[in-house]
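Hi R.,

Here's the chain you asked about this morning:
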Amino acid sequence: MRPRIKRSSTRDGHDRPEQKTGGYRTSENNRPRRAYDDRGRYEHKEGRPSGGGKPGYGRKPASGGHDRQAGRGGNRPGYEGRNVRKGFQYRIRTEHPRPAAPSMPVVQKEDDGMVRLNKFIANSGICSRREADEYIAAGLVSVNGQIITEMGVKVNPAEDDVRFNGERLRGEKKVYVLLNKPKDFVTTTSDPHAEKNVMQLISRDLCPERIFPVGRLDKSTTGVLLLTNDGELAEKLTHPSFQKKKIYQVTLDKNVKPEDMDRLVQGVALEDGQAYADEVAYNGDDRSVVGIEIHSGKNRIVRRMFEALGYKVRKLDRVYFAGLTKKNLRRGQWRFLSDEEVTMLKLNFYE
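And the predicted structure, written out as tokens:
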């Protein structure tokens, strides 16, 4: 059963401000703006009660009833300040809010038919634009017979002869494949030392385009994996500044203690810095199965966080990535994304 993880109170991770009830509001210089009269109506500066003096109008001061400031639990016995629903106990990170994704400025450029060399390579399905820069710097790319090692060079896709390792590159139709990755498959386009590769699961007859995985999943990690030949989109989904949401179901060697659930959202010290979970939840009554939501793209981040707390990860399954789930996909199956899903990804609709 995959965990159902509740979203944060607000988009940036902060708690909702307490609701004001009763009394009167004060301005910056502590002078009362308005107060209740003896009938429970607001008195304005002009002395005219709200509602035009009609009986029954105006708001009464809050007294008794449900205590909003106490949250959903109010003062009910046994409420301990945690959201509890159908066996799920949530821990939501608020002390370390996730920075908002930077807004991308819209720059109007004249379309002269020229594109940057790294973008052309990425659009051909070889790799992402960031990796294309590395290939250019290594001298593996030539334009019209001349090796190019400088960044920022532009080419004409219709006229220039661009080659990578001696093979001419041509623009391909963009395709987007969603795979439910099984265990023991390596997430790479080619690995001579790996017996099983995720590319072996994709039918070349149905998908002849050269595609590559977006991001990486460990050999023993299963779940949602996107493959495409759209290098620009791949960079957007994997670059740390965009911080795409990922949800994992983690099966551990023993029950997770409540205090360790708190430590996951408060921060776990790793060799490369602090690592935080945005939300964690038990999966029903089984305390050894935990759902965890993260935005970090660090290598093996989930496994390392639990190992730092003294747990061994037995199974790790990614159930959500950038708005995509493995619904209706058995392990090892794949499908093309719908036009609507592709549009949502390109518009950065999902976290």
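The CA atoms of residues 280 and 292 lie 4 Å apart.

Let me know if you need anything else.
M.
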